[in-house]
């Protein structure tokens, strides 16, 4: 079972980012996604509206979510996928702490999965810190 935990964590994190990234891209492109979203809290909606007004930022984030999620699902460039996704995870958690605590459980889940996967892959990540 211990050998399967990294696989389960990787697939779960990959699924979350692939599905929600694709849903976000559909919302950007068509105005509605395949997963209905409840109306956001006023402060959260205002902040997200500002990000959408930038034009490029939310599509970029959603593309990175999909790319990172797919890389995790197929199991190639796992460390690169985590490097792409960790800044997004930090912002997801930060936004939910500051503006919309109702989304914090998913933020905690994806943080735990990412931290676990970084720990499993630490030898590869530690090379990034070598001078």
Word description of this protein:
With 131 residues, this protein is mainly α. It has one domain (5-129). Helices cover 76% and strands 0% of the residues. It contains six helices and no strands. Helix 1 (5-30) crosses helix 5 (104-120), helix 3 (57-74) crosses helix 4 (78-98) and helix 4 (78-98) packs antiparallel against helix 5 (104-120).
N- to C-terminal separation?
37 Å
Shape: globular
Mean pLDDT over the full residue set: 89
Number of strands: 0
Query: Helices and strands, in N-to-C order?
Result: HHHHHH
Radius of gyration computed on alpha carbons = 15 Å
The structural domain count equals: 1
| Total of helices | 6
**Share of residues in strands:** under 5%
Helix-and-strand structural type: mainly alpha
Q: pLDDT under 50 segments (min length 5)? A: none
- Biggest β-sheet description: none
Helix content: over 70%
């Amino acid at each position: 079972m211990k050998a399967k935990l990294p696989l389960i964590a990787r697939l779960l994190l990959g699924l979350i980012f692939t599905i929600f990234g694709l849903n976000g891209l559909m919302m950007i492109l068509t105005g509605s996604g395949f997963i209905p979203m409840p109306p956001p809290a006023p402060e959260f909606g205002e902040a997200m509206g500002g990000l959408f007004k930038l034009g490029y930022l939310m599509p970029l984030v959603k593309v990175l979510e999909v790319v990172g999620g797919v890389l995790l699902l197929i199991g190639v460039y796992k460390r690169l996928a985590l490097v792409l996704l960790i800044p997004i995870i930090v912002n997801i958690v930060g936004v939910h702490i500051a503006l919309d605590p109702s989304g914090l459980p998913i933020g905690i889940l994806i943080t735990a999965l990412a931290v676990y996967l970084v720990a499993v892959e630490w030898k590869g990540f530690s090379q990034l810190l070598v001078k």
